[in-house]
Specification:
The protein is built from no helices and 10 strands. The chain is globular, with a radius of gyration of 13 Å. With about 120 residues, it is mostly beta strands. The termini are far apart. Helices cover about 0% and strands about 45% of the residues.
Length: about 120
Amino acid sequence: QLQLVESGGGLVQPGGSLRLSCMASRYNLSNYAIGWFRQAPGKEREGVACSSRSSGSRIYLYSVKGRFIVSRDNAKNTVYLQMSSLKPEDTAIYSCAAGWHCSDAGYEYDPWGQGTQVIVSS
């Protein structure tokens, strides 16, 4: 069964950068679209970005356009979410999930990783 593991979260000051990784073992991530989602405390989950099976990328969240980049390295079986110019409102648990095609709808994806916490604060 495909299992996803996120890493790279942490505490960063406003204006800083983080790179999140979504890795899989035993299964080739190039066979899946990988979506990134986030959920802040007290808020609904929102779709952030997606890396398609053809290595195309989509940013769904308007507030992160120009600041976040999604990419993948098939040799490392890893999908990345590069986050720059981080703002306190980017604070959330970020999760990756696998699907057959890119979508900002969470129900299109299964399975999900456990999530990684990102805190943007001075």
